[in-house]
Amino acid sequence: MIAATLMAVLSHWRRQPLQLGMLVIGLALATALWSAVQAINSEARASYAEAAAQISPDQEDYLIGDAGFIELSQYVALRRAGWLISPLLIGEFGDPGSRIELLGIDILTHPMAETLTEVNTPQQAEPLQPADLLLPPGRLFVHPETRLPDTDLPPVIANANVPPGTAVGDIGTVARLLQSGSRISRLVILPQQPVGLPPLRTVAPDLIRQSGSTGADTEQLTRSFHLNLTAFGLLAFAVGLFIVQGTIALGIEQRRGMFRTLRSLGIPIKILISVIFTELAIITTLAALIGLALGYLIAAALMPGVGATLSGLYGADLPGSLRLRPSWVLSGFGMALAGMLMAGVQSAWSIRTLPILAPPASAARGQQTLRGHRWSAAAGVLLLLAAAVIPIALDGLFAGFIFLGALMIGAALLLPLLLSLLATLGGRLAKRPLSQWLWADMRAQLPGLSLALMALLLALSTNIGVGTMVSSFRLTFVGWLDQRLASELYMTLPNSDDARKVTPWLKDRGVRVLPIRHSDERFNGAPMEVYGVVDDATYRDNWPLIAAQTQAWDQIAQGTGVLINEQLARRADLAPGDPLQIAADWQMTIAGVYSDYGNPHPQAIVGLDRLLAERPQIENRRFGLRVDADQAQGLRADLQEAFALPATAFIDKRALKDRSLAIFERTFVVTGALNLLTFGVAGFAMLTSLLTLWSQRLPQLAPIWAMGVTRHKLARLEVLRSVCLAALTAVLALPLGLMLGWALLAVVNVEAFGWRLPMVLFPMEWLRLFAMALMAAALAAALPALRLARLKPADLLRVFANER
């Protein structure tokens, strides 16, 4: 009995292969976009874990200094007290466009040394001995895919055990490259410790013990980006579920007579519902397998863009390859099952309440659907009210995404009723009978098209909101670059000793030399750069301050004040006049806050003399040169000839700006790709709805044809109806998209990156999106309209012979 019932239920799809294809493709697309996002996030987290393992291979605890570094004397004191520890030195090396992270380890004590000396590349003929790594000028180990800076480096050995973007070497070699003197970044506490060790507070009270299982700093820093990606994936999945819900509901509607017959033959309702869910499970398994394969391909295509985004915003490096991980595979399959279950529950309930002897009563069910839209509109209003309260009651990044979710879902639930009211208004304003019928028909078709139109609303508003955020960022970023890149020429010398010869030569020729020197510090456990500047009009005239005390630049010049970037001010709740603890023995008063777009890390600016007094050992290789713009190229040629400097030692203002903009464009390539994919899924949802409703359209169209309207004109009206609905949806999507853009700029962006951007409107971009929406609607209606235009008159006449 069960097998016969299942075969009877499945026979519907043999008669409706296109409808089955739409159902499978809809769920496969939803699963593909979700699993692609999860695959990218899983790969990123695995990369962070591997990078953290290089610092603490077995998640050993480690020691850090409250000043951001550890003195050699503290390390010696711990060793003499019996502590088994291994020193680490961490720093960045290279030019701003091609920087890598240097990791210096003690070859004799650090557990990672074993993975460096083993053979793992074809170029390495035999294992290295630890003593080989100590021979002058040292050795560096890098991943084969790591791009090295254009500077002099010790011999480099490829090693796949090293994370991309990182170079590992003996701590002495790395200290020489970083010019860090005798300072140490961390001390790894080795697993086996002798009994009876003196407490840390008595040997080195200034050091702090941290657990190795707390996670990598990079993972904590990029959490907002991955949460953003997950939100996109969830949105795309929800849009795909609209396709699934509409197709399942139509399949149930078309089989109501079959279900009534099966119930009359004695099939229990429990068995019938079980058969329905078995059918859905079979379809889900097929769709999930297709979706996982598509998700893998999408993730592989987006990985380079994700890597560029993480590198541009956070300095985190990801491998270019994608691995098949059980976590995202199971996540994708689970979401497909959950989505199909959600889509099928409502239909299963309609079967459970189906009277055996009741007629189909399509008109009555249509009225019930319209009443359901009123209930959904009421739920939408409640969600919109909740969205208005969330920013007041809660704060933080997660609260920002809850606000966005409530806002978008509430607006989507409100859409069918708003469109119904607009269609009613259009019908009242229409004068000709055919126009009145068109508006009435549009309103009658809303129940079947509402889910697709909701998907279009979400896709349009997301494109408007994210486009507003990205374009506002770009416009602000370009203006900010023009202010910050004030020097006509930027110069990086091979070493600090060259500065003693080059800078006097430049000053004799009337060139204003602006040293670019900084010290790597730590603030609340996060890396912080402290720059030193000379007292020059370049900074006073061009550096944008968003909050400042009176005579802020005078305080910097006198060495009594410090400027901090907006990120540090927001995260640490600091303002001008507050003290800033740069290091244990270094505190200054905040004189102002400046904008620093594109940099997620804390940053500070002090007078150069004060910086050198606190950190005299910092390198002196980078300079900004102020000359007339038409003399910059001549000065560059004279410097190369006089001091035998390479061409790579110079970057002019235009080239540096172009490089920064190129990084910016790569940064948001993933957001743009996901926007387009979501828009494509929404267009496919409209096509699915129109195709699946095709069989129900003939009873409404046949009487109009019989009254003298030709099939070709009816086909054109079908396309016009679809375009009108898309246009009304696009108009309603505009305020929702602008609200989304404001939330991204004022709430999510501040929590995620630490800076707030002004909101700029781009009407031409809206017109482009509107045109895309209308084109998608026209293309979705084109195939049903073509079928109508080619339909035989006998098929339309046959409608009147059937009992409705």
Defining key terms:
804 residues, 12% strand, 8-stranded mixed sheet, 7-stranded mixed sheet, 27 helices, 19 strands
- In total, the number of strands is 19
Structural class: alpha+beta
Residues in helices, as a percent range = 55-70%
pLDDT under 50 segments (min length 5)? 213-217, 359-367
Radius of gyration: 33 Å
Strand content: 5-15%
Distance between the termini: 31 Å
Principal-axes shape call: elongated
How do the strands of the widest beta sheet line up side by side? 5-4-6-3-2-7-1-8
Largest sheet, strands/sense/barrel: 8 strands, mixed
Overall pLDDT confidence:
79
Put simply, the count of helices is 27
Task: Give an overview of the whole structure.
With 804 residues, the protein is α+β, with helices and mostly antiparallel strands. Helix content is 61%, strand content 12%. The strands form 3 sheets. An 8-stranded mixed beta sheet has the order 5-4-6-3-2-7-1-8, covered by helices on one side. Helix 1 packs across helix 10 and helix 25 (711-753) runs antiparallel to helix 26 (763-789).
